[in-house]
Amino acid sequence: MDREALLRVIAMHPHENTPRLEYADWLMQYGSCDRDAATSEFIRMSCSVGCRQKRMPYEVYGWLIKNWHRLVPKSLAVGVPVESGPTPQQGWRINWHNGRKKEVLIRLARLPPKRGGYRPFKVVFDFAFGFLDRCETWSPVSFGQLKQPLLADQPLCKVMCHGTTRHPQRVRSLLGGAGADL
């Protein structure tokens, strides 16, 4: 099986561990980057319990705190880190919720370009059972810039933009046409 076929099986059986563990094995054998290795580690740790539960095993949350950025490298490369911590690793302003949701402030290019060039946008990553389950943003600009890199990093991720109903024509133009996903 190839990557896409394994991901389709996981999407069809979202509450089963076996397809996820098979994908982790495939990533260890055929993976080509650090993101693949991190995804394999995250799957193995979070799906190690015999049956699917509401919460991941406790040790997974510590792993996420240290390694979350390895799961979304293309997404983070889109922005410029907001300086808020004493070390480069803490370059993104970060808050954790429930041990699996990571609130990140990422500076993205303004559209259309304006003085200063970049603006911080709040993005919430919700990690669960080996994958980025959901990404939420509150700006059409950040949604438009992050959607494709996020889906390249985490193809099963649901990417959502809140608060887009006030100016739907502007949002659609930013996202590339009338059929754009809101």
How is this structure best summarized?
By secondary structure, the protein is of the alpha+beta class.
Would you mind describing this structure in some detail?
The structure is a single chain. The protein has one domain (3-175). The protein has helices at 3-12, 18-30, 34-46, 58-67, 73-78, 140-153, 168-175; strands at residues 80-81, 93-97, 101-109, 118-128, 131-137, 158-161. The model is unreliable at 83-92, 171-175 and 177-182 (pLDDT under 50). By secondary structure, it is an alpha+beta fold. Helices cover 41% and strands 21% of the residues. It contains 7 helices and 6 strands; from the N terminus they run αααααβββββαβα.
Query: How many discrete structural domains?
Result: 1
Residue fraction in strands: 15-25%
How would a crystallographer describe the biggest sheet? 6 strands, mixed
Task: State the secondary-structure class.
Answer: alpha+beta
Proportion of helical residues: 40-55%
Number of strands: 6
Mean pLDDT across the residues is 78
Number of distinct helices = 7
Oligomerization category of the chains in this entry: single chain
Uncertain runs are 83-92, 171-175, 177-182
Order of helices and strands: HHHHHEEEEEHEH
Rg of Cα set: 17 Å
**Overall shape:** globular
- End-to-end Cα distance, whole Å, is 33 Å
